[in-house]
Amino acid sequence: MTGPQAQATASEPPAIKPQFDHAVLQSGEVFWRDHQRWLEQKGYMLRPRYHPSWVASWRGADDSWWNYEDSTPAARPPVMDATRIDTGEIVVLKRISKSEYPTEAEIMQFFTAEPLGSHPRNHCVPLLDHFDVPGEKNYQILVTPLLRKYNDPRFKSVGEAVEFFRQIFVALQFMHQLKVAHRDCTEFNVMMDPRPTFPDLYHPQNPRMNLNWNGAPQYYTRTARPTKYYLIDFGLSRKFDPEGDPPLEVPVLGGDMTVPEYQDSTSPCDPFPVDVYYIGNMINEDFLLTSKGVEFMIPLINDMIQDDPSKRPTMDEVVSRFDDIRRKLSWWKLRSRLIETSEGNFERFVRSVRHAVRTTIHVIRSRPAIPTPND
């Protein structure tokens, strides 16, 4: 493009059309402003946007609101980031209704307390702290580490995907062996520890920006810096009697509405095969249907998402079968690139060249093809 139109486009700001005034807190954010001083006394500092005396920093400035960190509202108002005053660690505060989710804190405490808390097969997000909200008997604050969506950034190699499969299968197996059903282990509730791959972290409300709000965050691949994956959100989870019969529960609809048992939402069903379906369908939709390179997972995933829950493998069987699959994968296969089916020819060429360079560096530095973190 040339001429006046090109010059105008180059000088104009991004075509951002806010639906609200960024200088005014949204209704869901008011709670955090009103409890900022109390949270500070508890040891947690909220960002300036939620201080009672906050005034938008771009007011009166010769600049646009999107250039300022405090213009960013909470993406999900019941969930807020904060800084632990004693350590400087960024954490996540989650406000829950005790009447709606009465066992969430209890189950998180169960997996956080020793000896389970440090168990290498435990991938349940730890509960760092929890406390009731003063004057609001029904509400409670849960404090957890800052985590990032499990597939952001994208997986670069088959070996990285294989390690993800291993960890998430073990995570659910561990819960099931302790007779706890997650009941909502969908893609939204599977996260990764960002600290190895993002050593300088990123803005907790906008993962595309760094903490200083002046550019994109720097990160390493999972092969260079192996990471750990976590299950979160135990609001629908249930702990059952280890000695009891297989449980039958009326379905509580989670994030994946395709579960065959849930098509009749009034018939009790065993929640453990539902979990198997959830994880299997997540891998089916996020990998098998969108990528090339992990076709070896098709037989196992097809069994996990069968309509008949009695024909699905247990998580013990899933882990055992996956271990057999993983042992048979060649070094070359594990090092190969995970190709997204949406890639165009030019994009595929560029990514392939970059992958070849990265892989050469990984091999020279003796980095394993399956990047397993030190638990």
Automatic annotation (TrEMBL):
<dbReference type="InterPro" id="IPR000719">
    <property type="entry name" value="Prot_kinase_dom"/>
</dbReference>
<dbReference type="GO" id="GO:0005524">
    <property type="term" value="F:ATP binding"/>
</dbReference>
<dbReference type="GO" id="GO:0005634">
    <property type="term" value="C:nucleus"/>
</dbReference>
<protein>
    <recommendedName>
        <fullName>Protein kinase domain-containing protein</fullName>
    </recommendedName>
</protein>
<dbReference type="GO" id="GO:0044773">
    <property type="term" value="P:mitotic DNA damage checkpoint signaling"/>
</dbReference>
<dbReference type="GO" id="GO:0004674">
    <property type="term" value="F:protein serine/threonine kinase activity"/>
</dbReference>
<dbReference type="InterPro" id="IPR011009">
    <property type="entry name" value="Kinase-like_dom_sf"/>
</dbReference>
<feature type="domain" description="Protein kinase">
    <location>
        <begin position="65"/>
        <end position="375"/>
    </location>
</feature>
